[in-house]
Design a protein that fits this description.
Chain lengths: ~900, ~90
């Protein structure tokens, strides 16, 4: 077996292991086990995706070329981490309180939930990250090639392109599998984070192992190694001040702004407290990662033949010495660095692309109908999966087009400079109330243009994208517009030059734009919430409810969050408001909460737009405006209390009015019932009297006539008895005198019985059932339960006006409760009627089909006796009733 | 002991915590300045090994200080809370 085959085998085993770890972590989190998944050290290790393959291999190359300067890339993040009290704490708090899904979401959310800003940030992030992904693919293929070269038996070198393709495909698969489990980007990806934490350990271990081997194995101890460094080409500490400070600053800014860093640092953060551990643990990690870089570089320069690629010293030094095991370990370290970066970057970018580009477009094209038709949840997940595949593919395409040459190696700092353009809008948004959307737009656009012109396009080399003339003479022949010497600043390092000018102009445009423009109310509100996030945890509401239809909101929420979650959320909100059922009052606080929940799935801007389509525009209340003007804190307090009181009064009044309406309706129904019952009693009585008189007074009746009249009397008497039975049944149930006959039976049998008894067979109504789910054993009063089922099915048979009528019976077990939904495809029950259908004597429509309107009232009483409930389920297409029954058969007190 | 001791103790604790958060804010600034010190050394005359010892030593020290400060700071508390941190 050649070393190349061993390498491929180890690689595959490692990948399988990663899949297993991610899978196990997801399972553990799902079952609520594994509190260690939420340890601050896992969080710290996940931050290490900052160290990509570019830093794993490239740091040594960097050191071999320019000495200790490489360390600036790690110093910036170190300063940010130990200064967590300034920025990170605030970012994490804002991210959690606003349910932020990405850096684009944060910026858009801060500046009035503007989707335009989010789109710009997304595009810039994609431009900045794609080459970076290409760089990771290149590093994996290069390290493969390094192994292949040392292998004398390998007749053919592995094809670089195909290696990259395999790696890219595997990464996309992993990311889609574990990164899009749940739609809510705010829910943590435990599997992914765990895999990344593991990879962080592997890469640190690998680099330390190579370092120890070089210092004590190749070089013979610390003192000798230091002597060797002193004797090498990088013995002198010669760094230019501008690069030292500029790169430290750049890496610090990029650490905050990189989409993938934002993902692990803010979005995946479980607990703000974890920052306290990361504050010292992550700098220590970085320090250990860079500890052996200079020794490896110095020894590599001395031992390796001239012309050897210093970027691969980490790999080639052990290989040269015949330490294949160590070389494979080192390869795994680089492989880990590359894969973890691509995975997280793809998740972060796909969230941005799907939430801020695909979803708004889809909503726009599907128009206002988006809320009532089509499955948003499905579309969002699909968009995210496609975006992941797209982002990785884009990286691969970039890798192919650039030919994997040395031009790629320089892209690391260029990408840093690109994402650094988010800095003014981000920091301004967090710390300056006066920052506006216009300012943020101006700053981002100016910064992006300068970066693209001065750094990104020139990075392809002269005459590739920008012609040589532009480099020498400037754009349009204007000397002061030369991309490497803007405004005549000649002789500067290109990266420092571009960073200086782009950030300077970006910040200036941001400040000027903010000073000269006037923010919209929503912006000012969000500004106050972001900047003063530590002051008021309670947030002012942005919605004026009342006109909103809770049912419409429920329908929309079901499409995005899934039916069960949405119903649970609405029922919980209704319970808190003291209402029964699934429809809470659309109070401002509830709308606010709903928007937060939705924004966790589709981003703040989209969630805001969707709710405003239903509610009819967000209004800024007096309370909100007062909250902005914190100088008048006392007035605000007083006024907001008044406001809250008056809102509460209005709500109570509305509830009272509803109760009154219900009472009036009940009274009308009772009157109606009295006349109905006298009518119902009188009609059979009349015919019984008439026919019995005929039988008594008429002598010459044939036997046939006699039996006919007698059977009419009998039928009428049966009808009377049934009516009286129902009334008796109800009164017994209501008085709690009923005796339950508890038996054991299967739900499927009960439904079969009910279907037969309800007279569905041979009728027009089609019943759709799920026999697999119905295989549930019950211990309860089966006859009573069947009575409920018969009633619900018979109701559907009588009232469902769908063409053709279909009744769907769905069964599920939720939280130890059996839930059976009876949903038909008719026109449903009008909201006004929903409140009274379970009352006695209530009937929908006028005398349309017999019965005294006691059926549902009896059902409700029975279910209450059995310890369960039956309720109307709004927001379905037709009439829907939900029967719930606790499985642990504990009866209510009899 | 006396009723005055309690509040005094609280205020002292609050005061300490405030200064601790000041220290947490100053730490990155101090770090940035100290990391720039090698630039002031005699140009080209310094050996890389010496600069390495300085930078890595400083690095470890900063991580250690950050660890000590963070362990005592509770991020969940608002530093502007007029009532100060809860005692219990």
């Amino acid at each position: 077996m050649t070393i190349l085959n061993v390498l491929i085998l180890v690689c595959i085993l490692y990948v399988v292991f990663l899949f297993a770890v991610a899978f196990a972590a997801d399972r553990a989190a799902l079952r609520g086990r594994g509190s260690w998944l939420r340890s601050p050290f896992i969080y710290t290790l996940s931050l290490s995706i900052y160290c990509t393959a570019w830093t794993f291999y490239g740091a040594v190359g960097f050191a071999a070329r320019s000495g200790l300067e490489f360390v600036t890339i790690y110093l910036g993040p170190t300063l940010i981490m130990i200064g967590w009290w300034w920025t990170l704490r605030k970012m994490v708090r804002v991210g959690r309180s606003q349910r932020i899904t990405s850096i684009a979401d944060l910026i858009s959310s801060r500046y009035g939930k503007s989707n335009l800003l989010a789109v710009i940030v997304t595009v810039l992030a994609v431009i900045g990250t794609t080459p970076y992904i290409a760089l990771q693919l290149q590093s994996v293929t290069l390290s493969f090639a390094a192994f292949a070269e040392t292998d004398p038996t390998a007749t053919t070198l592995p094809d670089m392109q195909s290696t990259a393709l395999w790696v890219a495909g595997g990464l996309a698969l992993f990311t889609i599998l574990f990164g899009t489990r749940n739609l809510d980007a705010n829910e943590r990806h435990h599997g992914v984070v765990m895999a990344i934490a593991l990879e962080a350990v592997v890469k640190l271990f690998a680099l330390l192992a190579v370092g120890i081997f070089v210092v004590w194995g190749l070089s013979g101890g610390v003192a000798t190694t230091l002597d060797r460094i002193d004797a090498s080409a990088i013995a002198r500490f010669e760094v230019s001040g501008s690069r030292w400070i500029g790169l430290t600053m750049l890496s610090a800014v990029a650490f905050l702004c990189l989409p993938r860093m934002f993902q692990v640092m803010v979005v995946e953060n479980e607990d703000e407290d974890h920052l306290r551990t990361a504050a010292w643990a992550f700098p220590t990690y970085l320090m250990l990662m860079s500890l052996f870089v200079v020794p490896i570089a110095a020894v590599g320069l001395e031992l390796m033949p001239t012309g050897a690629n210093p970027d691969l010293f980490v790999l080639t030094l052990p290989l040269m010495d015949g330490r294949d095991g160590l070389a494979i370990l080192s390869f795994l370290g680089g492989f880990s660095s590359a894969t973890s970066m691509v995975i997280v970057a793809a998740i972060a970018l796909s969230t941005m692309v799907s939430n801020h580009v695909v979803m708004p477009l889809w909503l726009h094209f599907s128009g206002g109908a988006a809320m009532v038709s089509g499955d948003v949840r499905h579309v969002a997940l699909l968009a995210r999966r496609l975006s992941i595949a797209g982002v990785v593919l884009l990286g691969y395409v970039y890798f192919r087009l650039s030919g994997g040459g040395t031009a790629l190696a320089a892209i690391g700092l260029i990408a840093f400079a690109g994402v650094a353009q988010f800095m003014p809008a981000l920091m301004g948004g967090l710390f300056w109330r006066g920052a506006t959307r216009t300012g943020a737009l101006a700053g981002l656009i100016v910064g992006a243009v300068v970066w693209i012109y001065c750094l990104f396009l020139p990075s392809f080399g002269p005459s590739v994208v920008l012609p040589q003339v532009v480099f020498d003479e400037g754009l349009f022949g204007l000397q002061w517009l030369r991309p490497r010497a803007l405004f005549g600043t000649e002789g500067m390092d290109p990266v420092v030059h571009a960073v200086l000018w782009s950030l300077l102009l970006n910040t200036s445009a941001f400040i000027l734009g903010s000073l000269l423009s006037f923010p919209q109310p929503v912006e000012r509100l969000q500004g106050a919430q972001f900047v003063n996030v530590f002051d008021h945890s309670g947030t002012p509401g942005g919605w004026t409810g009342g006109m909103a239809q809770s049912e419409d909101l429920l329908i929309m929420a079901q499409r995005i969050m899934g039916a069960t979650e949405a119903q649970a959320l609405f029922a919980e909100a209704a319970r808190r408001q003291g209402l029964a059922g699934y429809l809470p009052e659309p109070s401002p606080s509830f709308l606010q909460e709903l928007e937060r929940e939705l924004s966790g799935s589709v981003g703040a801007a989209t969630a805001h737009a969707m709710i405003s389509q239903i509610v009819g525009g967000a209004a800024v209340s007096v309370e909100d405006l007062m909250a902005v003007a914190d100088e008048t804190a006392q007035i605000m307090e007083y006024s907001s209390q008044l406001e809250a009181k008056s809102q509460e009064l209005a709500r109570t009044a509305r509830q009272l009015r509803q109760a009154n309406e219900k009472l009036t309706q009940l009274s009308v129904q009772k009157d109606g019932f009295l006349s109905q019952i006298s009518h119902e009693l009188r009609t059979p009585m009349t015919s019984i009297r008439a026919f019995s008189e005929i039988l008594r007074d008429t002598g010459d009746l044939t036997a046939e006539e006699q039996s006919k009249y007698a059977s009419v009397i009998h039928d009428e008497a049966v009808r009377l008895t049934r009516l009286l039975d129902d009334l008796l049944d109800l009164s017994v149930l209501e008085n709690g005198q009923v005796v339950l006959h508890v038996q054991r039976g299967s739900l499927a049998d009960l439904l079969d019985r009910a279907e037969r008894a309800a007279g569905v067979q041979g009728g027009a109504l089609r019943v759709v059932r799920d026999r697999v789910a119905e295989a549930v054993d019950l211990t309860t009063d089966l006859d009573r339960l069947v009575q409920v089922f018969i009633n619900l099915i018979a109701n559907a048979r009588k009232y469902c006006d769908g063409q053709p009528p279909i009744l769907t019976i769905r069964t599920a077990v939720i939280d130890g409760e059996l839930v059976i939904d009876f949903t038909d495809n008719g026109s449903g029950i009008a909201p006004a009627q929903q409140a009274v259908i379970f009352e006695k004597f209530s009937r929908i429509g006028q005398h349309k089909a017999g019965g005294a309107g006691l059926g549902l009232a009896i059902c409700r009483e029975i279910m209450a006796r059995l310890g369960g409930a039956v309720s109307y389920l709004p927001g379905q297409k037709g009439a829907a009733f939900r029967v719930t029954l606790p499985l642990s058969a504990r009866m209510a007190a009899q | 002991m006396s009723a005055e001791r309690g509040p005094l103790f609280l205020a002292r604790r609050t005061y300490r915590l405030r200064r601790l958060s000041d220290a947490a804010r100053m730490l990155p600034i101090a770090g940035a300045v100290l990391f720039s010190v090698p630039l002031l050394w005699e140009a080209g005359g310094v050996r890389t090994t010496r600069a390495m010892l300085y930078i890595f030593g400083l690095w470890i020290a900063l991580a250690g200080i950050a660890g000590v400060i963070s362990a005592r700071l509770r991020p969940t508390e608002s530093e502007d809370d007029p009532k100060g941190p809860q005692e219990r």
